[in-house]
Amino acid sequence: MMQSNDVKKMVREKYTEIAGQDKVTNQSSCCGSGGCSSEVYNIMADDYSHLEGYEAEADLGLGCGLPTEFAAIRPGDVVIDLGSGAGNDAFIAGHETGDTGKVIGIDFTPAMIEKAAQNAAARGFTNVEFRQGDIEDMPVANGIADVVVSNCVLNLVPNKNIVFKEIYRALKPGGHFSISDIVLDGVLPPAIREAAEMYAGCVSGAVQKKVYLELISGAGFTNVLIQKEKLVTVPADILGRHLNPAEIDAFQNSGTGIYSITVYAQKPAAKGAACCAPGCCS
Which pLDDT tens digit goes with each residue over 52-100? Predict the structure, then answer.
């Protein structure tokens, strides 16, 4: 079993490499881990191009959902993007929150921070900033954010319970998050779970969906709901790097599922304030 610091070192090294790859390479891999598949196709990422504020140069194809589409960001909001990468979700959030709001992107990898800052400067964005930091100890003040978003990042973090507590700390009372992530239904073969390439690529760091939702509730969040869920199909040529033919057959017939989910949850409002999940309020 890899120790927390070993996992973080591996993820930082891998995502430094990813920062220099093109989108096609990332999309045809295990969430950007590189060279996973001989085919060029989108394994996990969703298409962002229809969203206002989308910047193609900032889209590395590393996500597994569209959290900013579901995040109910309003003009003037302060938004935190966890694992901001080259800035894709941060720039879309910046379009939603407008000049009166602010977006803070946090990423663990210096190369990603540099790339995102360059993208922001080239486009003259003034309401988006990027900070290097560990999302288990976010470089932000208590109660600063109205909304937190994240796309296929928490599965890379060894201590997910700490991250959810940090999100709770950073949100204002009544604030909420919308997070896309990879979860499991059933048990992955050890060869896949332990493969560093697959870990940096979102799969073997994932936990059971039931456990994931329990961590959210355990951190104090309410109104927890799954906004979107889809089955992720891992191609046979990727499985073949980690399993023999008999193991592949057993895995494919095991009922084990790898899912991308987008989850909403809310920090309880201050006493006396009204609060509800998206769609409940006029």
Answer: 887 777 776 778 899 999 999 999 999 999 999 889 999 999 999 999 9
Q: Could you tell me if 88 and 26 are in contact, meaning their C-beta atoms sit under 8 angstroms apart?
A: no
Within its chain, how far is the Cα of 259 from the centroid?
A: 13
Instruction: Select from 267, 34, 244 the least CA-distant residue to 169.
Output: 267
Task: List the domain range (segments joined by +) for residue 47.
Answer: 4-266
Residue 13: which pLDDT band, with cuts at 50, 70 and 90?
low
Q: What is the pTM of this model?
A: 0.81
Number of domains in the chain: 1
The answer to whether position 132 is within a domain reads: yes
- What whole-number distance in Å separates Cα of residue 111 and Cα of residue 222? 36
Q: Looking at residue 186, which CATH number applies to its domain? A: 3.40.50.150
DSSP 8-state class, residue 218: H
Distance CA 48, CA 207 (A): 26
Mean local confidence (pLDDT), 225-249:
85
Assess if residue 192 is contained within a domain.
yes
